[in-house]
Amino acid sequence: MSTPLSAKKIKNNLNSLRIGSEILVFDAVDSTNDLAKQYLEKDAAEGLVLIAESQTSGRGRMGRSWVSLPGVGLYLSVILKPQIQPRRVPQLTLLAGLATTLAINEFTRKKARLKWPNDILLNGKKLCGILCETHSTQNGKAGVIVGIGINVNHTITDFPDDLKSSATSLMIETGNPVDRLALVRALIGHLDQQYDAYLGNGEQTVIEKWLENSDMVGKKITVTQGKSATRGTALGLDSHGRLLMRSEKGEELAFDSGEVTLHSSAPA
Ligand code: BTN
């Protein structure tokens, strides 16, 4: 078991404007995103970071669960209260993915890459997922919860059989355990920088940097939305952060949600 995370050590000389205004570390919770909703109900301040050593009901997108074993991962949620229109909220998933990739890449020579909308891959396998949720409180206030799960020091046996071929951890890929304290400090720093730039200058820089840290463009992909699956070639992101695709029928499409499958060669 690795050294438990300590809020005091994470905060020590942390030079951030908003993210990490308060940091709380818990031993075991159901889900840090659900805990964040409770804190929003109590009018928690923007920048509150809730971290758990383990989660009993860690959640991913599409109702999936998130493997949250004690001591080996980073499982955290950040409360944001941006004054933005609801249609811009998905951009915060891109922002969080970018910041998390920049933090992870301080610890690995082979670069982690972003997969739209919320995944970070290393050597083509999933290393991290982001779950952004909006919560409206009973007294009519709203906040955005940015949930981030990173597989840090998992071994392959830590993943259930159905994930063994698609999931990975920083330790599996680099061969060395990674210091979770250093990683979470880097993550808070990058989140703070990207969020400050976003509030000041808008989404354009986030989108540009997101694309620089992804290799989706030019790849054959399938986008699944419910029962509909569309195949084509990824073209990039538009100025709102939507995924652009040239479909096999030659149409240019923009997706604001969906599940992407990357194909190593052209889909049959
Ligand atoms: C996904 O890949 O579908 C998103 C996974 C998000 C997991 C993180 S772990 C911390 C936070 N709490 C949760 O219950 N989920 C997110």
Describe the 3D structure:
Helices cover 25% and strands 30% of the residues. The chain is an alpha+beta fold and 268 residues long. It folds into two domains: 7-212, Bira Bifunctional Protein, Domain 2 (BirA Bifunctional Protein, domain 2, 2-Layer Sandwich); 220-263, SH3 type barrels, CATH 2.30.30.100. Strand 6 and strand 7 (142-151) form a beta hairpin. Helix 3 packs across helix 5 and helix 3 (90-104) crosses helix 6. The termini are far apart. The model has no long low-confidence stretch (mean pLDDT 96). Biotin (BTN) is lined by residues 31-33, 55, 58-61, 64, 66, 75-77, 118, 129-131, 147-149.
Low-confidence stretches: none
Biggest sheet descriptor: 7 strands, mixed
Would you state the CATH class of the largest domain?
Alpha Beta
Give the strand line-up of the largest sheet: 1-2-3-7-6-5-4
Distance between the termini: 45 Å
Q: How many beta-strand elements? A: 12
Form type: globular
Give a list of the ligands. biotin
Strand content: 25-35%
Given helix and strand content, the structural type is: alpha+beta
* CATH topology-level name of the largest domain: BirA Bifunctional Protein, domain 2
* Tally of individual helices: 6
